[in-house]
Write a structure and sequence with these properties.
alpha+beta, 587 residues, globular, nine-stranded mixed β-sheet, five-stranded antiparallel β-sheet
C-alpha cells in the first residue's frame, strides 16, 4: 500500500522513520531530522526538507552519507550484499550483466575515483527520466566526473544522492510525474530533427528555416492539435501559434511560449521546455472539458539564437512589430539570403506586418525556461522566480602597443598590448563582483599574428557587460571603459572601442512575478528570486506588455548550449504544476 503525506504526518516518529527507511542509504538520521518538521505539506515539501537536512548537516555527515553508498558494479554487488533499493537500481541499469571489458573498466574507474575523492562514485542510474541510463552513459559520466574539482564533485555526488532519494520516494508514494514524463518525451521526439552534418554526429543543431527547422515546426503543430488547441498555424516568419479559446468570445488571452531553434551542438531543453510546459496544461484543460475566463496562446518562436543569420529574436520581434526588413537581405554561410530561405519555406513575407500583436488583447506574457546556469543546481532548488532579464552591452575592442623582441626588450620598456588587456580582465572581475548580480566577460581574446618570441603589439578582444537594470549596466560600462583608458595611458598603449550591441533590461511585472511566487509556494518549495543573465523572448515581449518568467533547474551544474543540458521529469512536473496554478490564479 502506497504511503501518503497524511500517514507520514500522523504516524508515530518511529513508524514514520521505518516507512522512509532506505530513501537515504543507511542514513535514517535524514528522515528523523525531516520528520521533526512535521506537518509536511506535500511530497514535494518532504523531498525538499530532506534535501535541506543533508545540506545543513556539515561536511563530516555528508561524507558519511556518501560512504554509506555502494560502488557501482562493486564488491557489494558481487557479494550480493546491496540494499534492496540499490540492487534493483543497479540491476535495472544492466550493471549486473557487464561484459568482462565493461566490468574491468568500471573497476578501474572506481579505484581511481576513490583515490581522488575519498568516497564512492554515486550516480542516479535511473537517470533524469527515471527509466534508466545505459551502461555507456554510466561509464561516460563516470569518466567525465573523475576530472572534476574535489569540492565540485562532493556537491555533485550529493545531488545524485538526492535524485536517488527522490526516485525512491516516488516509488514509496506511488507518485509518477506523468506530465513531466510526457513533456520529457515530447522534447526527445523534437530532438530527432537536426541539421545535416550535425545529425550524422549525433549533435542537435536546428537553425532557422532548414529542413530540420521546418520538421520541428510540423512536429509542434501536430502536437498542438493533439493537445486540443482550437486554432493552430505557422505564421509568416515560421512561428507555430496555438490558440485555446476562452469561455466566451472577446475575452483577452494569456501569451506564452519560447523558441524552438537551437545553437550549434546544443541541448534539448533550451527554449523548447517553455513551449511544451504550457501545451501540457492546455491538454489537461481540454481533456477535462474546461474553458477559462481568458484564452491561452502558445507561440513556438521560430528564431531566437541568431545562428544562421545575424538576426536574433526574429520570431518574437515580429510579434512586437519590430521585424527589421533589412534582415531579409542578410546571407548565411552558403550565400542564401533570408528572403530566399523564407520563400523556399513557403512563408509569405508580405504578411509579416500582420503578425504584430495588439497588447490590448492580451493579459501579459509568461515564459518557462531552463535556467542555463548553476545557481538553482547549487542551491538544490527545482524552481526559481525571475526578477529581471539583465540589460547588456557589448563592445569589440583593439589594444595597440609595440611588437618587439621578447628576449631583448626589458620588462619596464615594453608596450605589451596583451598585458594591458589582461590587467583589464582582472579589473573587470573585481568590478562586476561589487554589484552582486552584474557580470562581465572577455569572451574573445586574440593576438593577431602572435609569435612565441614577440611581445604582443596588438590584441583584439570583446567585452560583454550585463546587469539587472540599465543604470547598473551603464555604471559598470562606464567604470570598465574608464579603467581601460587609464590602463592604456599608463602602459603607453592605444585602444579603440566599438559598441556592437545594447539591450535594455526587462524587469518582471510585479503582479505577474507574484503569481509565479504563489505557485512555487503552493507546491511546498522555498521561494528563490533571481535575475536572468541570459536574454529570452520575454525581453522582447516586455516592450509591449507585462512579462514574468519561471526558471527550471538544470542538471550537470546547469550547463546549457551544450549536449549535457538536461533537467529531470520531476522538475518538469513541478514546472507544469506551477504553470497550472498560475492559470488558476488568473481565472
Amino acid at each position: 500500500m502506497a504511503l501518503t503525506i497524511n500517514k507520514i504526518n500522523t504516524d508515530t516518529l518511529q513508524d514514520a522513520i521505518r516507512a522512509l527507511d532506505g530513501v537515504y542509504e543507511h542514513s535514517p538520521w535524514v528522515a528523523q531530522q525531516a520528520l521533526a518538521q512535521r506537518p509536511l505539506r506535500s511530497l514535494t515539501h518532504l523531498k525538499q526538507v530532506m534535501v535541506d537536512c543533508v545540506r545543513n548537516a556539515g561536511t563530516d555527515a555528508q561524507l558519511k552519507l556518501l560512504r554509506a553508498h555502494p560502488e557501482l558494479a562493486g564488491k557489494a554487488m558481487i557479494s550480493n550484499t546491496l540494499t534492496a533499493e540499490s540492487s534493483h537500481e543497479q540491476s535495472r541499469a544492466g550493471l549486473t550483466y557487464c561484459t568482462p571489458e565493461e566490468f574491468e573498466r568500471i573497476q578501474k574507474l572506481n579505484a581511481d575515483y576513490n583515490a581522488r575523492f575519498g568516497f564512492p562514485f554515486i550516480l542516479a542510474v535511473r537517470g533524469p527520466r527515471g527509466t534508466g541510463l545505459t551502461k555507456r552513459q554510466i561509464i561516460d559520466t563516470f569518466a567525465r566526473r573523475l576530472t572534476n574539482h574535489p569540492d565540485f564533485e562532493l556537491a555533485e555526488a550529493l545531488r545524485n544522492v538526492h535524485r536517488i532519494a527522490e526516485l525512491r520516494l516516488n516509488d514509496k508514494f506511488d507518485s509518477e510525474p506523468t506530465l513531466g514524463n510526457d513533456v520529457w518525451d515530447w522534447l526527445e521526439s523534437l530532438a530527432q530533427h537536426s541539421d545535416p552534418g550535425c545529425a550524422e554526429q549525433g549533435q542537435l543543431t536546428v537553425t532557422y528555416l532548414t529542413d530540420a527547422h521546418r520538421a520541428c515546426a510540423n512536429n509542434i503543430r501536430d502536437r498542438m492539435l493533439e493537445c486540443g488547441f482550437d486554432d493552430v498555424s505557422i505564421d509568416a516568419v515560421g512561428n507555430v501559434v496555438g490558440r485555446y479559446h476562452a469561455s466566451a468570445p472577446g475575452l483577452r488571452s494569456l501569451l506564452t511560449g519560447s523558441h524552438y531553434d537551437t545553437v550549434r551542438n546544443g541541448g534539448k531543453h533550451d527554449g523548447r521546455l517553455g513551449i511544451f510546459v504550457p501545451m501540457a496544461c492546455v491538454r489537461e484543460l481540454h481533456r477535462s472539458g474546461k474553458r477559462l475566463s481568458f484564452g491561452i496562446e502558445v507561440v513556438a518562436f521560430a528564431e531566437e539564437e541568431g545562428q544562421r543569420f545575424k538576426a536574433t529574436f526574429l520570431g518574437s520581434s515580429a510579434l512586437t512589430g519590430h521585424f527589421d526588413q533589412a534582415w531579409l537581405d542578410q546571407k548565411d554561410a552558403q550565400g542564401i539570403t533570408m528572403r530566399s530561405a523564407m520563400s523556399h519555406a513557403g512563408l509569405k513575407i508580405e504578411d509579416i506586418p500582420r503578425i504584430k500583436r495588439n497588447p490590448a488583447q492580451y493579459l501579459g506574457f509568461v515564459e518557462v525556461h531552463i535556467e542555463q546556469g548553476p545557481v538553482l543546481n547549487d542551491l538544490d532548488l527545482p524552481l526559481g522566480v525571475v526578477t529581471s532579464i539583465n540589460g547588456s552591452v557589448r563592445y569589440v575592442c583593439e589594444m595597440t602597443g609595440m611588437a618587439s623582441h621578447a628576449g631583448t626588450t626589458p620588462m619596464d620598456r615594453r608596450r605589451d598590448a596583451a598585458a594591458g588587456v589582461a590587467e583589464l580582465i582582472l579589473y573587470l572581475e573585481e568590478r562586476a563582483r561589487i554589484d552582486g548580480d552584474s557580470v562581465g566577460t572577455v569572451g574573445m581574446l586574440n593576438v593577431p599574428g602572435g609569435s612565441i618570441n614577440v611581445v604582443p603589439g596588438r590584441c583584439h578582444f570583446s567585452l560583454d557587460l550585463r546587469a539587472p537594470n540599465n543604470a547598473q549596466r551603464d555604471a559598470l560600462a562606464t567604470d570598465v571603459l574608464t579603467s581601460l583608458q587609464r590602463i592604456a595611458e599608463r602602459r603607453g598603449l592605444r585602444c579603440t572601442v566599438e559598441e556592437s550591441m545594447r539591450a535594455s533590461a526587462a524587469p518582471s511585472a510585479k503582479d505577474w512575478q507574484h503569481r509565479w511566487e504563489r505557485a512555487v509556494n503552493v507546491l511546498g518549495l522555498p521561494l528563490y528570486r533571481m535575475p536572468s543573465g541570459a536574454g529570452h523572448d520575454a525581453m522582447k515581449l516586455h516592450e509591449i506588455m507585462p512579462q514574468a518568467m519561471l526558471f527550471v533547474r538544470g542538471e550537470n551544474a546547469g550547463i546549457s548550449h551544450n549536449p549535457l543540458e538536461s533537467t529531470t521529469n520531476n522538475d518538469i512536473q513541478l514546472a507544469v504544476e506551477a504553470f497550472a496554478h498560475l492559470l488558476r490564479q488568473i481565472a
